[in-house]
Amino acid sequence: MSTIPALPHSTPDADLDSAPFWQGLREHRILLQSCSGCGHLRCPPIPGCPRCGVRTSELVPSSGRGQIYSWITVHQPMGNLTEEALPCTIVTVQLQEGCRLVGRLHPTGEPGFNRPVTPHFIDRDDWTELAFRIDGTVPDDG
Amino acid sequence: MMADAAVAGVGYTQLSAASEQSVLGLATEACAAALNDAGLASADVDGIASFMVMHDSVPTQAVATVLGLDHMRFSLDIDLGGQAPCHLVTQAAAAITTGQADAVLVYRAMKGRSGPRVGAMQFSGPGGQYRYPIGYSTYMMYVAMWARRFLYETGQGEEDLAAVAMAQRSYAMANERAFRRKPLTKDLYDASPLVVDPFRSPDCTIEVDGACALVVTSLERARDLRHPPALVAAGSYRAGPSCGLDIGDHLEWADYTRNYTSWLAPDLYRQAGVEAADIQVAEIYDCFTSTVLMGLEGLGLCERGDSGRFVRSGQTLLDGRLPTNTHGGLLAEGYLHGMNTVAEAVLQVQGRGGERQAPRHDVCIVTSGALMDGSGLILTVDR
Fold first, then answer.
1. Which residues in chain A are contacts of B144 at CB distance < 8 A?
2. Residues 107..166 of B with a Cβ closer than 8 Å to A: which?
3. Contact between chains at B126 and A18 (C-beta distance less than 8 A)
């Protein structure tokens, strides 16, 4: 098994809305916004609730555990995915707490609908990537 | 109100892998061709509308200059992708019916193969930081993510995607403009490479250099021009709830098995005073095969979960119940970002489809867009 590679030009363009999320990942915590009005959990972080419009929220931690809602496997180089990074499986995860995140699946394993996954934090030089692994599989570089 | 405007003509450049013209040259060639097709002159035009993505085209102002327009009263440049063509025709029709303009050119021009390729672009917007660092970086990936969930929940599969690609290729074989004209069998489909699973190469649009333009004017004026008017009976744009931070952000979108067409359809049918069963031709935006299936279901043209069987049983071919993507679609004619999809709808309503003319073509639905938001038109024959 190879290490999940860092991609070229991949440092996230953090902004004022997203900085706490990225700082959370640095500490291996997944921080979601919980709407002060209706309690809707949301990601990505934004300055208002897409359900009720209330513009205040608090950050709450997520376990990062969830189930695969959908996935793709990239077989040809495109964007910043070079040959070395292929094939690359990217999963959309329905978190137990109620919203979705997207990340690379590592090790690739066998993705399937509703398969349970756990978070896999990968520290890069200047940011931390959130990947996922299928429950019961062991990361080789985590 | 919409019913007082009509599309009077269409124009195309050649679709090629590497045009020797500039984008501005392509844009003006297609616009001049559309005017010629309608029987209008530059002096008749007082409005232009277009769209571009990440500065891959030229502004309407430049086209007005090259065409020598001396009284432009209506100019619209929007920053949207494939959601734009029907939306722009709607805006042109509204401009005409409210007296802002008499004749409006709508175009899309791009060197989408030899120049900036939309398929490889990183879109600006606050959503990119969550995608690009992990390689979730092209539009194909986003549509593929939806497609897999759609197929799963609706009980469909790869053979249904293949059916769309094969049906449309058969139309393209009768379309001189089409970029992909070789027959596509199931064996060839199965042997083609996976690009982004579940998509194989025939599931994906083919990028081209070229331009396409339409001219919209009043119904009254259109009646005196060269071809029968294609009446704009309905025009609408819809974005569903939680439509994201940009065209690649759909984490808050609740259901990857339903796109904007589910919200758009009631608007279109109400405006036009028709029902889904009245639609005789469909031109559905198809950057990838899955969006045709999702569109057929979202527009109520098929029952949920039945679009694949509908296509596999030949219902979208000329002798089927609903001829669909009669130019071969963006999959086979080429990726002019859906402007050519609208142009094909116009040709069908006008009865100018030649070998690929639908036998019944009084009421045609056309869409622009693939995921959270998009637009649509219902074009009809003159009533």
1. 72
2. 119-120, 122, 126-138, 140-141, 144-146, 148-149, 152
3. yes
Are B133 and A75 an interchain contact pair (Cβ–Cβ within 8 Å)? Answer: no
Count of Cβ atoms closer than 10 Å to residue B18 Cβ: 10
Catalytic residue numbers of B, as ranges: 285, 335
The per-residue pLDDT string of chain B (383 residues; one tens digit each, 9 = 90 and over) reads 567 999 999 999 999 999 999 999 999 999 999 999 999 999 999 999 999 999 999 999 999 999 999 999 999 999 999 999 999 999 999 999 999 999 999 999 999 999 999 888 888 889 999 999 999 999 999 999 999 999 999 999 999 999 999 999 999 999 999 999 999 999 999 999 999 999 999 999 999 999 999 999 999 999 999 999 999 999 999 999 999 999 999 999 999 999 999 999 999 999 999 999 999 999 999 999 999 999 999 999 999 999 999 999 999 999 999 999 999 999 999 999 999 999 999 999 999 999 999 999 999 999 999 999 999 999 999 97
Say if the Cβ atoms of B242 and A50 lie within 8 Å.
yes
pTM of the full structure: 0.97
Cβ atoms of B30 and B238 closer than 8 Å: no
Whole-angstrom distance, CA of residue A139 vs CA of residue B187:
39
Cβ–Cβ gap A14/B129 under 8 Å = yes
SS3 state of residue B330: helix
Residue A141 carries which DSSP code? -
Joined together, the tokens standing for residue A72 give 């793709």
In whole angstroms, what is the distance from residue B299 CA to residue B268 CA?
Answer: 9
